[in-house]
Design goal:
Largest sheet: 10 strands, antiparallel
């Protein structure tokens, strides 16, 4: 638990302590709706929501950082955006998916992530060159890749794609297992993004305002997809991308129909879990999973 507390303290050191808010992805909104499995979902997993006709869900969209008032159009820090969804399987029984809008994570282990956070904190404007973060990135090429990757600002949360960066083992009713990673894709295909001028012209809360207005007019739909690992693919390292040509199986469709009535209050009591904890979907040996679960 000491490592997890160190991670929380490092996040608080970067963003400040904001009572009642998450130390990361603090600014968010909850929506409710349903999940309907695809016809092929049962071939992948025997998890209840893959077999039931439909399952109630609660989804949370968020900005990056631990700042609850970060502008949605902040060009440097508001991305990657977050998406989490809870599948309500029975009273006090659920399973979650947590993802963000970049396919990958900066470090393989929580210990390295703690180094990363501390290096960012120590690299203020008065830090000598090379700064601690420059030194860290110089020795961690995957973290450098994460930092340098484009993270454009979407036109809407409803037009963004999200990735659960850790792999899981999916097992069906026949006992056949395979590893895969969740992807959450917007209905209608790829994302829609703003250029720098378009983003700068937006209001600080435009993504949350737009989502509220959009769902009031009609449902917001996402597709839950599982990208399957091939033989030889690394399944315990969230920094490693699998090739795009890997098989992708559609697990089902999320249809969100309304903003949760007391979203701000419910957000503070709902803690999403990166570990599935449901029969038919097991965690891989990714070392980030347990630490993330404890931090959340």
């Amino acid at each position: 638990m000491a490592l997890e507390l160190d991670l929380i303290h490092a996040l608080d050191g970067l963003f400040g302590v904001h009572a009642g808010f998450r130390p990361a992805h603090a600014k968010g909104i909850l929506l409710s709706g349903t999940f309907t499995p695809s016809p092929g979902a049962a071939s992948l997993t025997r998890a209840p929501h893959a077999l039931n006709k439909s399952t109630a869900v609660t989804a949370r969209f968020s900005n990056s950082t631990g700042l609850p008032d970060i502008p949605d159009n902040d060009p440097k820090s508001a991305s990657p955006r977050g998406f989490a969804v809870r599948f309500h399987l029975a009273e006090h029984v659920h399973t979650d998916i947590i993802g963000h809008s970049h396919d990958g994570f900066p470090t393989r282990t929580p210990e390295e992530f703690l180094e990363f956070l501390r290096a960012v904190k120590a690299s203020g404007p008065d830090a000598s060159k090379p700064t601690p973060i420059e030194q860290f990135l110089g020795g961690h090429p995957k973290a450098l890749e994460f930092v340098m990757a484009p993270k454009p600002i979407p036109t809407s949360f409803a037009k963004e794609s999200f990735f659960a960066v850790s792999a899981f083992k999916f097992t069906n009713q026949e006992g056949a297992s395979q590893f895969g990673r969740f992807r959450i894709r917007p209905d209608g295909g790829g994302g829609e993004y703003l250029d720098a001028a378009g983003a700068a012209a937006k209001t600080p809360n435009f993504l949350f305002d737009e989502l509220t207005e959009r769902v009031a007019k009609g449902p917001v739909k996402f597709h839950v997809v599982v990208q399957l690992a091939a033989t030889g693919d690394v399944v315990d390292d969230a920094t490693i991308h699998w090739p795009e040509e890997r098989v992708q199986v559609e697990l089902g469709t999320i249809v969100l129909t309304q903003v949760v009535a007391d979203s701000a209050t419910d957000e503070r009591r709902m803690i999403f879990d990166p570990i599935p904890r449901v029969d038919g979907i097991e965690p891989s040996a990714d070392p980030l999973l347990e630490a993330r679960a404890e931090v959340y």
